[in-house]
Amino acid sequence: MSDYRTIDPAAQEMLEIAERFGISTQFDRYKAQQPQCKFGLTGVCCKICMQGPCRIIPTKKGADMGICGARDYTIVSRNVARSIAGGASAHSDHGREIAHTLLATAEGKAPDYRIKDSDKLHKVAQRVGIATQGRKDVDIAKDVAILALNDYGKYTEEPCVWLDTNIDDERKKKFKKTRISPPAIDRSVVQLFHETHMGTDADPVNIIFGGLQAALSDFTGMSLSTDLSDILFGTPEPVKTSANLGTLRKEYVNIAIHGHNPVLSEMIVDVADELQEEAKTAGASGINLVGICCTGNEVLMRRGVPTATNFGTQELAIMTGVLDAMVVDVQCIAPGVQEVCNCYHTITISTIKFSKIPGAAHIEFTPATAKESAREIIRLAIANFGNRRADLVHIPNFKKNVIGGFSVEAMMDVFSKVNASSPISVLSDAIKNGEIKGICAFAGCNNQKTVHDGDIIKIAEYLAKNDVFLVSTGCSAGAFAKLGMMSPEGVEKFAGPGLKKVIKRIQDAAGIELPLVFHMGSCVDNSRIQQLWHHLALDMGVSVPQLPFVASAPEATSEKAVSIGSWMAAMGIPTHVGVMPPLDGSPLIFDLVTEVARDVFGGYFILETDAEKGAQKLLERLEKRAWRLKVHDKASEIYNSSTNLMTELMEG
Length: 652
Ligand code: BF8
Ligand code: SF4
Prior knowledge:
globular; six-stranded parallel β-sheet; alpha/beta; disordered C terminus; Substrate Binding Domain Of Dnak, Chain:A, Domain 2; Rossmann fold; 16 strands; binds iron/sulfur cluster; 4 domains
């Protein structure tokens, strides 16, 4: 096959098998969908009322508006805003599940869970203003969980706690002034659906600001999700593991855990340990767990479970013929997995009441009966081991070493070996002395509109060579893990001289091997990336829009990616997206998110589908911000004035 649509060698091998057997994958279905509708692609199709769909044709008299009179900018902004609402719903509902589990744990109603990280519980409680002195962990945890749940539905107007306690004063003022601080998570999502209902808001700027309010809700839900997951399951620490399809093992019962919420996957990992003997009785050497998508990231970070693959290639894991079960919960599970299961012995097991796939087995999972359900799920996989067809077994001999587990706490712990009194200064000093040009966070998905994993790697290679410190989450992290960039070998191969010097310095002081790209977790853990820039900005005495910190989602796909990108921009981060979102049907909205946002928030979108140009633009932004910092530092030295004041008007 010459026209590979992935750069992952294991996936290339499996796609050849798919072609040979005539099995349909996302790669084939993308082709079958061509040409995609231009109205949809550019965002000018409206079907929010039953008079529609209305499509804007600027050159056709009368068709330059929808039937109700909505213009391109109203339709495009409404569609984008509704995507943000979708993303915020998914992330925040995931967070709500964790908060309920923490509450149930504290109340003794979820006996299979416990508070694993008391230290984090105390730190979070102190940050959000809950008393800890002389109190039992369960009592503190109960208050923390209730306060978190309060952020979803409080009826007062003060800012959400998980937003307000994570941002600096400058951003608080900015969000207040622009009126995008969400009153409550659920309310801002509901309000946005109201705002974008037929015949409500027609003002595109107003709609985009409503979208940003929901995007900040998205952040709020993600941030509390990360905090509460760490309390329940432990804050990640550096861990060695491996990634790619070569992590599947022929003699073992292979179970892929796929989806997002660690409330399920943590229990599967616990129970798999318990049931190793049962697997042996069934003729296997034991149980081998692997992760896919963000569940993969969660269990990699906390438990060192290998990652099999990411979003774009999830179906290919089944085609190895050795996957005995694919256990899924919520989000980013391609229904197409069941089509592939129909050709193999693999059982897909859905677990959540509102997330089922026709044809898949369903074993309901609830925190109250967690281990019981986890046992039932794993036993189904063990029972399926004997149903394999030897003639269909093909495991690509490809896997890479991974060092992951870099929560901000873990990073600071490692950095503290270089600078005990101020670990974060390891990064700020390296920026100030020019060893690194800044930091780029890679987030987001795979998208069939690009070569799978291709642009993620291409942009990272360019930035690493140019001495940019790299961190990552989500399916981008999956790409780096699978292709060897989350390993010490990655540092040797790709880091520029300055970046290599910094990583080696930390490595030598800490006495542990470090990767080129630091794995910071799943998509909800973009909140960890926010924490990193927040601490860095405080340490450098500047506000976020002055910080040499950029983000890139080369293969953004989901609604969650839209909401993450939107809050990142609102927080002051130039955010590159490598796939054109459906908004260029309105020049006004395009300018709003790429240009006007810079003046208002300091952060904005860089919409660039050419990876090389995208990489150059990201580097330019970093260099510009780093240069400005130096100029201001010099000036503030001469005139003895504050850097922050001097840079107030010089954002972006
Ligand atoms: O939340 S990166 S494809 S798996 S949306 Fe989904 Fe995108 Fe992957 Fe995780 Ni995030
Ligand atoms: Fe058409 Fe207006 Fe209805 Fe949208 S809301 S489908 S533009 S009539």
